[in-house]
Write a structure and sequence with these properties.
By secondary structure, the chain is mainly alpha-helical. Helices cover 59% and strands 4% of the residues.
Length: 141
């Protein structure tokens, strides 16, 4: 009986926090969409498909690189990208400059691209961005 009680309590807590997280993600995505359309869509297209035929810019829609872990996207936007990366089994070797956004802005744009065009990625908080930013400072990125 005690196990059931504990499991029920855990379930109730999970349910209580889910709507709040959903609201935070929805608000973040709306802010992020504006940022994306203002800066990122020029290279990655409004639909996130990228310019893949000539390997100019990788897709963000259905991107294994973007979705496999949160840190990939955070680091690319924070520190830029030089050198080869593989996205959906296609190699890209083009530079992307670092974007000077706040932790909130970076969180918002990543929440948008990781949850647009059929993507489904967990929420990235500004605090997570700040942690990666600080780690980059310590390692000289």
């Amino acid at each position: 009986m005690k196990k059931i009680s504990v499991l029920f309590s855990i379930l109730c807590l999970a349910i209580a926090f889910t709507p709040q997280q959903d609201k935070a993600l929805a608000a973040s995505k709306l802010r992020g969409e504006k940022l994306y359309n203002g800066l990122c869509a020029g290279c990655h297209k409004p639909d996130g498909s990228g310019f893949t035929k000539k390997k100019l810019s990788p897709p963000l829609a259905n991107s294994d690189y973007l979705l496999k872990n949160k840190k990939n996207g955070i680091e690319v936007v924070l520190f830029g990208l030089k050198g080869k990366i593989t996205v959906n089994d296609v190699e890209y070797d083009r530079a992307m400059p670092a974007i000077e956004w706040t932790d909130q802005e970076l969180s918002d744009v990543l929440n948008y691209v990781r949850n647009a065009w059929g993507n489904e990625g967990p929420f990235i908080s500004p605090e997570e961005v700040a942690t990666v930013r600080e780690a980059g400072r310590e390692t000289g990125k």
